[in-house]
Specification:
Blueprint: H1 5-21, H2 40-60, H3 81-109, H4 111-128, H5 134-143, E1 157-160, E2 175-178, H6 180-186, H7 191-197
Antiparallel strand pairs: 1-2
């Protein structure tokens, strides 16, 4: 069911009115905490409804987002690739600004720790060996089509497949383009170890 702009406007007004009055958005009766919009009873009903739908979709091999067939049904996925990509794009766009603000604030409040971390990384990079030119780096990025080698999103950073912290070098063979989300998630784990827990 597609929502119109009028539906969305009504929904926003309804939510604001219920939140101001401290009542549940769903049943309109029970009082709720200031940071929530559903009472405990409606929250539990909503949670059960979502879990039931998820179970039905998984059993039938259907996408929870669009209702189509799952492209990889043997994995414990609830959404097809297309719906999952849309959901990831929405969450990245929403979280990107908050993530950047949090790290900027952390760097400003912890300048000594930040300098130490950067110095440690520079030292490891220098002592592990390996070097590359700008042309070699461009060739590596072009080899992967300018996309993250893990999820296929547009690349934002360059990843050491074997992390510098684990003895990885900066030779071109150890470098691949990656998006910021995957790189943050991977951290200092080797690729095979990270993919096993992802």
């Amino acid at each position: 069911m597609a929502y119109t702009d009028a539906d969305r406007t009504y929904k926003k007004r309804h939510y604001a009115k219920c939140k101001a009055a401290g009542i549940c958005v769903h049943c309109g009766k029970n009082a709720v905490a200031s940071n929530r919009v559903l009472c405990d009873k409606c929250l539990e009903i909503n949670r059960q409804r979502c879990l039931d739908r998820l179970r039905r979709c998984r059993v039938a091999g259907l996408c929870q987002g669009c209702g189509g067939k799952l492209d990889i049904p043997h994995l414990s996925r609830a959404r097809c690739s297309k719906c999952r990509d849309k959901q990831l794009a929405r969450s990245r766009a929403r979280d990107k600004q908050a993530f950047a603000e949090y790290h900027k604030l952390w760097r400003e409040t912890n300048p000594d720790q930040f300098r130490t971390i950067k110095a440690r990384h520079r030292f490891r990079t220098r002592t592990n060996g390996g070097s590359l030119s700008i042309n070699q780096l461009r060739a590596r990025i072009d080899y992967y089509g300018g996309l993250c080698y893990v999820c296929g999103a547009e690349y934002e950073q360059v990843d050491h497949v074997i992390p510098v912290a684990r003895g990885g070098t900066s030779w071109p063979a150890n470098l691949r383009p990656i998006c910021a989300h995957c790189n943050q998630s991977k951290g200092d784990k080797p690729l095979y170890e990270w993919l096993a827990i992802r």
